[in-house]
Amino acid sequence: MPTEQPPGGTVTFLFTDIEGSTKLWDAHSELMRTSLARHDAIMRSAVFSSGGYVFKTIGDAFCVAFATANQAVQAALSAQIALNSESWPLETPIKVRMALHTGTVESRDDDYFGPPLNRVARVMATAHGGQSLITLSTYELVRDTLPLGTTTKELGSHQLKDLARPELVFQLIHSDLPAEFPPLRSLSNQPNNLPLQLTSFVGREREIQRVKTLLENGRLITLTGSGGSGKTRLSMQIAADQLEQFSEGAWLTELASLSEGYMVSRTVANVLGVAENPGQDFTKAIAAHIGQKPLLLILDNCEHLIEECAILADALLKTCPRLKILATSREPLGISGETVFRVPPLSVPDLIDLQTPETLSQFESVRLFIDRALQADSNFIVTNENAPAMASLCYRLDGIPLAIELAAARVRTLAVEQIDARLDQRFRLLTGGSRAALPRQQTLRSLIDWSYDLLQLKERKLLQRLSVFAGGWALDSAEIVCADVELEGWEISEMVLALVDKSLVVAQEHQGVSRLGLLESVREYAKERLTESGSTELYQDRHFQCFAALGREALPHLRGPEQKVWLERLQAEMDNLRAALARGIGTPDGLSLCGDLWWFWYQRGHFTEGRAWLAEGLDRNPRADIEVRALAFNGAGVLAEAQGDFEEALRFHLHSLELNRLRGARWFEAMSLNNIGNVYGSSGDFETAGEYWMQGLEIWRAQEAEGTLTDSRGIAAALDNLGNVATSRGKLHEARNLYKESLEMRRAQGNLTLIAYSLMNVGAANTELEDYVSAQTCFRESLDICVDIQDQFGTGHLFYLIASLACPTSSITLLARANRIRRELGTPLTGHDEAIHDSTLQRARDALSETEFETAWAEGYAMSLAQAVDLARTVTELPD
Hints:
880 residues; alpha/beta; five-stranded parallel beta sheet; 16 strands
């Protein structure tokens, strides 16, 4: 019988697949369906009768776990004997290769993770159809208890495609099975000079598959990327995986230690065994040696000898038709026929999400850190306590393998939390790499020194200046900030692209917009160089002016039809805006930037951050222009009200009102009055709120009558608010009419946020009037807008409103997700929201058992925002 639970701890794995199945399918697809079904039945019978647990099948491949090695051996033998005795059609003979390996693994979600799985897969890849191999770890466990009629044959130590330590391999021999097979398909039996690696290869599955595909279709693939990104290790792994495709082998030529260009061809010749003759042309000699041979040549670390490498590669590709070249370089070779593959950093955790040891294990950077940390300290473990620091550390090191390895080595003397805390001094901390490595790979600073020293003088100056940007930049921003008499504007774009080619600047595309940036370690290095030049303050000031101008330009667009575009543009520049504010907050211009940004902070739910910037700016600029302070007080008041801080909100709006009256700004005076009314309305005092709303409306109506009203937003806001007064008095039809009038005005104005909010109010009025179908229509249109412009505050409010229309289970789920949003934004329940929440909650409690209620509430808190939106959109239940 099969085991019902996956074995854990130390497990013996059996991996199998059918030799040549792809060709069999291509030639005899119908027969293969029948043969494969029979193969699967034989495999499952043998595995289950031996107590195996099938945790994965991929095509015709089986991945099986056993609690004991003896069970695994019995399953392999039973399966091979049954497969060998089966009468297969002549066109589709089924021959299965198998491998067994024992090791300690991590089990999660009915799957396994850890080096033993890679090991058993690599061993299986060396076998032939009908052959069963076992590793030394399994052999030691079964050598004295083999089934009757079974022996083993030692096949020697073999270098596997993972390039880690060699594996001593044994073949299972049984009297009912063939015993003779060709030599194993290991690296040891194929021509190559790929070196054994002392550490395991972690991750990169997607990259390996992508480059393999490129190598199948092209002849020169250049892996580019920043220093320490793992280009060399990746190229060797790809070569090992593809070795069977090159009967004349894969040959690694290491160029990093060379200092003279003429040595490139000589070094390649030496690797390939080309005899040296006086006065010979090495390029021609290499080409003659390769000729028609199918051969893979790896040119590793070409960047400092890029021209010579390009000339050699071009000449060899033109004269050796079956040659393929895999190059690694910090910039492309730049010749015809080259395909460039930029090696990305390892995947890193998202710092927004709460991380645990279980969630962290999916990220390549974390797996690499753990692997190398265990080499430094065998007692190292990831815990719930150090998991957040682990996530932060890998994120701040940009997923760069060498930086992570240098950090992992520090676990001998520092806790993960301490390493993360000291990354601000990363160039002092991340030292002490392998003494056998090249000097530039022993410290993080020397790694970047190597790239920096290869730059031209103007490129160095530009890299320094680009360090004032945070979180990336658009090309036009780089031209504004960095151009001067030394670097003219027209030169900037060309040099930025050169820095991209040299893997010092990273280019990314998001939603059709190209952005550029520096990895954090490169940025810190460039900042140090900028400080050494004495120009830091100059370029920080220019950076501030650039983004202050962006804030001014964005302000009018944030309230019109282009709102979404500008919200996304400002969101993309959040880090730059923060850096600009940090530089300029003590100046009137910094306070002005706060006044330009408060509506953006409100729409994207950055309430706490926005309040902090506005408070600091107002405190530090008491003599700023009266208009600037008035607008800043207004924004501070709106954000304070959103977080339920009504006393502070009222204080700010009263200051704004005083300043607007002092400067004679009637429209803004009315807006201050309207916002004061909002504070009273949010706290439930609609009578006082109505007085202020009417005062504001009267000013705007007077301007309208005079022909001096240039912006009707205020009238729409006042009408919407007066609808709330009517609602509080039970005049629901009057309220709905006021909401609708406001909605029509806002549709004409094109302010998506306010359209969504008016739709909420119309929908709420329809709910009170028991017009539930119309209410749903309003809520769903509003929800679509809020999701589109990423307004979480509005989305959370809608969940409360839609919950009032839903069946009890759905309503509880939506309420829980809405409460989670409120908590994340720091916005408490007040006024009408609180009333809706309480009545909906009570209705659900009355309808559900305690268990049902608690389950739905827990699911709501665990639910993602996207899942909650989908639920809200599909709610069709209406109250009785």
